[in-house]
Amino acid sequence: MTSEPKQPTEEYVKSTGLKHAYAYDPDGKLSKYFGVAGIPHAVLVDPGGTVVWSGHPAALNDAIVESALAGALTEPVWTWPDETARVRELLGERSYAAALAEARKHEGPYAERVQGLVAARLARVRKAFDSGDYLGALNAAEPAAKSLAGLPEGDEVRGILTNLQSDPGIQRLIEGQRKLKAVLLKVDKVRLVADAKQLLTELEGLSEAYPDSIVGERAKAAYEALKARIP
Predict the structure, then answer these.
(1) Whole-model pTM?
(2) Average pLDDT, integer, range 117-138
(3) Distance CA 55, CA 40 (A)
(4) Could you give the CA distance from residue 115 to residue 59 in angstroms, rounded to a whole number?
(5) pLDDT at 48
(6) Is the Cβ–Cβ distance between 96 and 117 less than 8 Å?
(7) Rounded to whole angstroms, how far apart are CA atoms 173 and 204?
(8) What average pLDDT does this structure show over 91-115?
(9) pLDDT single digits (tens) 24-57
(10) In Å, what is the CA distance from 68 to each residue of 72, 108, 203, 216?
């Protein structure tokens, strides 16, 4: 995605032999939506349509990508036969219970593929919750609870969501993750030493306030990485 004019973009694509798809965003609407602070910036979306990673592409490793691919279809839905058009439409609407019921009317692997998408959405919520990434679990569970309504997996997601929304200890950690996210956005844009030192203080405070948690661990790692950047 680029905000550059068409001519220089196509010249660049031709000169570099770029193979991946590209599109134009002259007003920067997509960048604003994803909170892009600098270029280049990458966003990774899982098969269920949830943003699972965002940042500088140099920090995007194979493990993150492989994790996001869980449950991905081996072939795009637009290659499915015409008689499955309603299944594809329901998947686009994130109506998984209806899509699964419709897919079962057709011969072939379509019901199995839809079930794989369902299982992947539940697995992502479970994994985030079990790892202590409660903000990630909350962000995944809220849309999943809606899209999986009417399925046993949806009931399990709603149970996890209730826990996330009602447990005071979890709520405190979610608030800590949100604070850390705000600080890390500043870290991405920091240029002045004085500002960097202020961010170090904030990261150190988060590390101390949330020990033995994903907040404290990530704050400490970010502290060390930022400290190494300061002359």
Answers:
(1) 0.76
(2) 92
(3) 8
(4) 32
(5) 64
(6) yes
(7) 16
(8) 94
(9) 888 888 877 777 767 778 888 877 667 777 777 8
(10) 8, 26, 28, 24
| Separation of alpha carbons 80 and 88, rounded Å | 8
Specify the length of the chain in residues: 231
CB 106 within 8 A of CB 83: yes
Q: Could you tell me which of 91, 152, 166 has the C-alpha nearest to residue 122?
A: 152
Confidence of residue 114 (pLDDT cuts 50, 70, 90): very high
Q: Comparing 2-11, 107-116, 127-136, which segment has the lowest mean pLDDT?
A: 2-11
Domain boundaries, the chain: 6-60, 68-166, 170-229
Contact criterion met (CB below 8 Å) for 174 and 138: yes
Which H or E run contains 52?
Answer: strand 51-55
CA end-to-end distance (rounded Å), the chain? 34
Nearest Cα neighbor of 163 from 174, 152, 153 is 174
Q: Which secondary structure element, helix H or strand E, spans residue 44, and what is its range?
A: strand 42-45
Distance CA 52, CA 44 (A): 6
